[in-house]
Design goal:
Number of strands: 4
Structural class: mainly alpha
Strand content: 5-15%
Bound molecules: zinc ion
Order of helices and strands: HEEEEHHH
Helix content: 55-70%
Strand order of the largest sheet: 1-2
Largest sheet: 2 strands, antiparallel
Number of domains: 1
């Protein structure tokens, strides 16, 4: 059976969260080590980040990237980075935030 977008988002949120936990388990200091995310441009913790080719993405952007891949919104990280630049991804970002908000309630 095909997964619904909601299910995919939920699954990806769990995966992204687990990556942070795994990284911190391996090296707790990572939480306090920062880099400039290639995607959102913010200074972010290494914990849960992933390097896609040349670009290291923070955990938040990894979630966007993986969700975007799973939903077939784009097929490589460069497209996500380009899209972030012109805010074309606003829609999918909002979708994820909405799902997150629902869960937190
Ligand atoms: Zn980022």
């Amino acid at each position: 059976m095909e997964k619904t977008p909601e299910e995919i988002v939920e699954e990806m949120q769990a995966v992204a969260k687990q990556m942070v936990l795994d990284d911190l388990e391996e090296n707790p200091d990572l939480e306090y080590e920062f880099f400039d995310c290639a995607c959102c441009g913010k200074s972010k913790s290494y914990a849960g980040s992933i390097k896609y080719g040349e670009h290291r993405l923070c955990n938040d952007c990894v979630l966007l990237a993986e969700t975007g891949f799973a939903l077939k919104k784009f097929d490589n990280v460069q497209k996500l980075i380009d899209a972030m630049e012109d805010n074309r991804l606003e829609e999918i970002c909002n979708f994820i935030r909405t799902e997150q908000a629902k869960k937190d309630n």
